[in-house]
Design brief:
Helix content is 49%, strand content 5%. The chain has 173 residues and is mainly α.
């Protein structure tokens, strides 16, 4: 006759295995989703098509031939205006190690976390983008605190810890 305690232990182990499998699957999905930053491609230039003018497709600029044969005088180029990045732009730590994460700037870590929060919960981010920043701040804090001062994990991928933090904080729902 089996002891009832053994059945409970088996059930707990099965439940833990299912939970670990779910974490692994979500980690893999987040690693692949966070691997590439979400940025728009640079616009391209092409010759204008023949016929009447029409608007170019997104990301394309038409080049129209000059009306006269004499080249126009070059216009003075104004100094480029400083462009300020938005808080969620420029994250480059999607494939970084824990060591690289801790050496990076806070701005870079926050922008990378914003990408991961949007990927983990795209529906909510599309509905209300204002919820992304508080979650990105908390995610950055979670990853940084969870990995701080542990020299053995400096070569681990930071996306693994991002996935765990996202699950623990419930941002994957």
């Amino acid at each position: 006759m089996r002891h009832p305690e053994g059945t409970r232990v088996k059930k707990r182990r099965a439940k833990m295995n299912r939970l670990l499998s779910a974490i692994l699957i979500i980690s893999i999905l987040l690693l692949s989703a966070c691997a590439a930053p979400t940025s728009q491609p640079a616009p391209t230039s092409q010759p204008a098509p023949p016929g009447p003018p029409r608007p170019p497709p997104p990301g394309v600029t038409y080049i129209y031939p000059e009306e006269s044969s004499t080249p126009p005088a070059p216009a003075p180029t104004p100094a480029p205006a400083p462009t300020e990045r938005k808080w969620y732009e420029g994250g480059t730590l999607h494939k970084a190690t824990v060591g690289e994460w801790h050496r990076a700037t806070y701005t870079n870590r926050l922008a990378t976390c914003a990408d991961c929060v949007v990927v983990a919960n795209r529906a909510e981010a599309e509905r209300d983008f204002s919820t992304v920043k508080p979650k990105a701040i908390e995610l950055e804090k979670c990853i940084t605190e969870a990995t701080k001062g542990i020299s053995e994990i400096q070569h681990h991928q930071v996306a693994e810890y991002a996935a765990m933090c996202i699950i623990l904080m419930g941002y994957d729902k």
